[in-house]
Amino acid sequence: MTSSLIGCRIERVEVNIAVAKVNKYASSESGDTVEAVERPNGGVSVVLADGQTSGRGAKAVSMMVTRKVIALLAEGVRDGAAARAASDALFTEKKGQVISTLNIASVDLHSGTIVLTRNNPAPVFVSRGEKPDCLGAESVPLGTSRDVRPVITEMEIVPGLMIVVYTDGLVHAGARRGQPMDACEVISSVLEEQDPGPQELADILLAHAVNLDSNRPADDISVVVMKVDHQTGDDVRRMSIRLPIVH
Amino acid sequence: MTSSLIGCRIERVEVNIAVAKVNKYASSESGDTVEAVERPNGGVSVVLADGQTSGRGAKAVSMMVTRKVIALLAEGVRDGAAARAASDALFTEKKGQVISTLNIASVDLHSGTIVLTRNNPAPVFVSRGEKPDCLGAESVPLGTSRDVRPVITEMEIVPGLMIVVYTDGLVHAGARRGQPMDACEVISSVLEEQDPGPQELADILLAHAVNLDSNRPADDISVVVMKVDHQTGDDVRRMSIRLPIVH
C-alpha cells in the first residue's frame, strides 16, 4: 500500500529556459536564429541555427533552416528526422556550398525526456546536479553532404538538470586576441561559485564572451540555457521577450 | 541644419513582451496556443489562437491555426494575408463547423510599426501614454465562412505604448458567478494605480481572472502584453520561458 501510494505521488517540476543573443559588432543582422515552438504532443522545443558567414546571407540561411525545423516539429515530426530534412533541403538548395549549424533542445512531455539534437561542432554543456559534462562528440553542420546525421542525447527531466547550448560565437570569443574561450570550463566555474538562474547564466556567458572580444563581438553569439527545478509557485506558463531596436 | 541633425538622432527603444497562460480547471490541455516567431524582415510576431470548446480538440485546432500563421509570417507573408489564409484552411478542413479566434501582435521593423491583427470578438487594449483605448470593433473568428477579414490596427513604435491582447477566457472570467470581468476596465485601473512591467501586468490580470472564477478557471486564459520603452541597458535580445510540468 505504502509503495503504491508513493508511486502515485505527483511530482511537480518546472523547466525554465533562457535565451540571450547579440550580433557581431557593427552588424545589424545576426546570422544566428533562435525560435521556440510548442510540441504538438506536449512540451517545447528551442531551435538554434547559425548560418555560414555573417550578415544578410547567413541570416537567410539560418532562418530557412529554423523555419523548416519548427514547421516539422509542429507537425509532430521527431527532432532527428526534422534535422535531417532541414539538412537535405539546405544541401539541395545550396548544392553543398552553404552550411549551417543546428541545435534543437526539446522538453518532450510525450516521452518525459529532454532531447538534445546537435549538428554543430560546438559542444553542449550538461550538468546533472554535481556532475558537469561537456558533450563534444564529433558532429557536422547541416548542408555539408547528403545524409548528415545529428548527434542525439536524451535524458530524464529531473530537478537539478542544467543544459547550455551555444553557437560558435561563444567558442571563438577571444580567438582574435589568442585567448579563445573554453565555454564548458567557464560554465563549470560559474556554477561552482554561484547558483545562477537560466537568464542570469546566459547573460554571464554572453558578457564574458563580449568582454574577451573587447566589447566588439567578432561573431554573432547565442546562448540557450535550460534548467529543471522543483516547481515553485503557480501553474502559469510564461514567456517573455526583450527586443532592443535602433530606429 | 538643426532639424536635419535632430532627424538623424538615433533613438533606441526596446519592446518587451510577456505572455501568461493557464488551463481551464482540471484540464491538462489548453485550447489556447501562443507562439512567437521572428519576422524575416526584422521584428517579432506573437500569434495567439483559441480553438472552439476546450481540451484536445480545441488544442488541435488552435495549434493548426497558429502553425499555419507562423509558417506564413516566417516566409514574409503579411499579417492580414496570413490570417485570411489560416481562416480559409480551417474553413476548408472543418467545413465551417469549427472556429478559432486569432490575434497577431507584430513588431514590424520593416515598416517601423506595431501591427495588430484581430479575428476575435474580445477587444484589444491599447494605451499610448495617458490615453487608454479599448479596440472593440466587430470582429469574427476564423473558419466561420469564406473570406473572413481581420480587423487590422497599425501604430508607431513609440515609448509609452502598451498593448494587451487576450483570449475570451479573460472576458468570461467570473461570468459563472454573474460578475464577468471587464478586462479593459481592469487594465485601465491597474495602470492608473501602478506602473507594472509587462510580465507583472499579465500576471495581475491572470490572477484577477482566476480569482473571479474561485481559483478554478472556467476556460483557458491567455494574456499577451507588449510594451515599448526607451532602451535601458544593453543590446542583448532575450527570451525566457517557464514551463510547469505535472509528472
Short description:
The structure is a homodimer. The first copy, chain A, has about 250 residues and is of the alpha+beta class.
Keywords:
5-stranded antiparallel sheet; 6 helices; 247 residues; alpha+beta; 34% strand; homodimer
Task: Report what the structure shows.
The structure is a homodimer of 247-residue chains. The first copy, chain A, has 247 residues and is of the alpha+beta class. In chain A, 29% of the residues lie in helices and 34% in strands. Chain A contains 6 helices and 11 strands. Chain A has helices spanning 2-7, 56-74, 79-94, 168-172, 183-193, 198-212, and strands at residues 12-22, 32-38, 43-51, 100-108, 113-119, 124-128, 131-135, 151-156, 161-166, 221-230, 237-246. In chain A, the strands form 2 sheets. Chain A has a 5-stranded antiparallel beta sheet. Chain A has a 5-stranded antiparallel beta sheet with strand order 2-3-4-5-8, covered by helices on one side. In chain A, a hairpin with a 4-residue loop joins strand 4 (100-108) and strand 5. In chain A, helix 2 runs antiparallel to helix 3 (79-94). The first copy, chain A, is globular, with a radius of gyration of 18 Å. Mean pLDDT of chain A is 90; it is low at 1-7. Chains A and B meet through strand 1, strand 2, strand 3, helix 2 and helix 6 of A and strand 1, strand 2, strand 3, helix 2 and helix 6 of B.
Uncertain runs of chain A:
1-7
| Share of β-strand residues of chain A | 25-35%
What is the overall shape of chain A? globular
Chain-averaged pLDDT of chain A: 90
In terms of quaternary structure, the protein is homodimer
User: Which two chains touch over the largest interface?
Assistant: A-B, 54 and 54 residues
Number of extended strands of chain A:
11
